[in-house]
Amino acid sequence: MIDDLALFADLYELTMAQAFYQQGMFAQATYSLFIRQYPPNRAFLVAAGLEDVLDYLENLRFSQASLDYLRSIGIFDSNFLKYLKDLRFTGSVRAIPEGRLFFTDEPVLEVTAPIIEAQIGETFIINQINFQSLLTTKSARCMLAAPGCSLADFGSRRTHGIDAALKMARCGYIAGFQSTSNVLASQRYGIPPSGTMAHSFISSFAVEIDAFRAYAASFPDRAVLLLDTYDTIEGAYNAVTVAKEMEAAGHKLVAVRLDSGNFVDLSKQVRRILDQADLRYVKIVASGGLDEYEIDTLLQCHAPIDIFGVGTKVGVSADAPWSDMAYKLVAYNGRPVMKLSTEKVSLPGAKQVFRLYDTNGKFPRDIIAPSDENPPGGEALLQTVMSGGRRTAPSPRLDVIRGTLANDLRRLDDSHKGLYNPPHYPVAISANLQQLTLQVRSTIQEDLG
User: Fold this and answer.
1) What is the CA angle 176-180-185, rounded to 5?
2) What is the DSSP letter of 387?
């Protein structure tokens, strides 16, 4: 229940909130959400997860059951719990829209609200935007590795839970995937569903070709036959037989699927068998342990694969399952603040990210600046998406977000899209933000003596 998500918080969010309450600290605070370092082999990130954050903030409230539980812990003051009963998010959110590219140190989201309201949201906000941005970035890399091919999300069975599976389908679609095997995700997000058959369907019949015929009879206009239950090449010949029978009945076999073995050799052999039977329209699907690295290798070896079903490795972002995304206080009661911890320094004050364009419409670099600065020629990326605790506009449709990412990727130089150790995109700190950082650092050091 969304009413109970107020307890989706680390305990220290609530202990700090009580201390703020007892100290009478209700002034406005600004928190910035950003990633300090790229995960391995990344030089860009894709913003995602904002929709869930806005839903959470609009509906933030402590149910009676939640308050009863907090009371049972025995560490919270009764007056503070009364305060929580009426707590609602009343602040504002500026964010880089879903589907836009962002880079390290850039605030992908900033929350400004009374400090207790802004602090309590930390855990949920990081959880959603960190995870979904990682999945969308991983999915986008798969799309970049497979130009001219179609990709389908097959990841639901091995993602880390139901919510993760649904989010993977959504993130994959934003990145350019054509479909998902997850029927609930298809219903919820309007993503085209796709699916073939399992090996169990084949083995439940005494003879493989009977399984093919049965499936083709049930789905004469969308049949995809799985070839590798016993012997892939024999399976291909059986598929040819069934495809010819379908043609005689006025239908066409859509595709055959490979799920194991040497995909390069097998796809070439299967393509030859299909072409020799004048079945050039039948596509080849490959699935099983694939991500951008395997897809790139297969296509570099000229494997004639038309559609890739990607699952486990993409659904958990296997090579980069985490990032150091942080949600840090950058201003309180009109005073810019920053963190000076070793290797974890944060930039002070509310900020804006400006994206520059060259004469060809490409992105040469970004500039991080104070929120009230306006460098000439830059596009301000952080947009006000919530004010007074309510959305400022309806959320964009999923296909619009998908188009936004496709457009940004076209404008990003190809060098930053490489799969292996690509050069980092230039991000500059404006002179005004540099000066503010020096001033705040100096003030802190003076206070420390």
Assistant:
1) 110
2) E
AA identity, residue 407: N
Domain 137-315: which CATH number of 1.20.1250.20, 1.20.1340.10, 3.20.20.70, 1.10.3720.10? 3.20.20.70
Q: How far apart are CA 32 and CA 326, in angstroms?
A: 8
Tens digit of each residue's pLDDT (9 = 90 or more) over 240-277: 999 999 999 999 999 999 999 999 999 999 999 999 99
The pTM for the full model equals: 0.96
**Which of 285, 292, 434 has the alpha carbon at shortest distance from 370?**
434
So what's the pLDDT on residue 1? 42
The closest of 431, 371, 417, 369 to 145, measured between CA atoms, is 417
Instruction: Using DSSP bridges, classify how beta strands 427-429 and 366-370 pair: parallel, antiparallel or unpaired.
Output: parallel
Q: How many Å apart are CA 110 and CA 381, to the nearest integer?
A: 12
For every residue of 78-145, DSSP letters joined together read HHHHHHHHT-----EEEEPPTT-EE-TT--SEEEEEEHHHHHHTHHHHHHHHHHHHHHHHHHHHHHHH
Domain ranges of the chain: 2-135+321-447, 137-315
Name the band, by pLDDT with cuts 50, 70 and 90, for residue 85: very high
Alpha-carbon distance of 308 to 78, in angstroms, equals: 56
Confidence class for position 449, pLDDT limits 50, 70, 90: low
Same fold, 2-135+321-447 and 137-315: no
CATH T-level assignment (fold) for domain 2-135+321-447: nicotinate phosphoribosyltransferase (3.20.140)
What is the pLDDT at residue 3? Answer: 54
| Helix/strand number for the chain, H first, E second | 16, 19
Tracing tokens 């009413």 back to the chain, one arrives at: 3
The residues, ordered by sequence, that sit 6+ positions from 293 with a Cβ below 8 Å of its Cβ are 145, 319, 419
Instruction: Place 447 in a pLDDT band, splitting at 50, 70 and 90.
Output: confident
Residue found by looking up tokens 């919820």 in the block: 188
Name the percent of the chain in helix, strand, coil, to the closest 5: 45, 15, 40
**45 sits in which H/E element:** strand 45-46
Beta strand 383-387 pairing with 307-310: unpaired
Please give the DSSP secondary-structure letter assigned to residue 96: P
Q: Name the average pLDDT for the chain.
A: 96
CA–CA separation, 238 vs 273, rounded Å? 11
Lowest mean pLDDT among 12-26, 235-249, 340-354: 340-354
* The dihedral formed by the CA atoms of 109, 114, 117 and 121, expressed in degrees to the nearest 10: 20
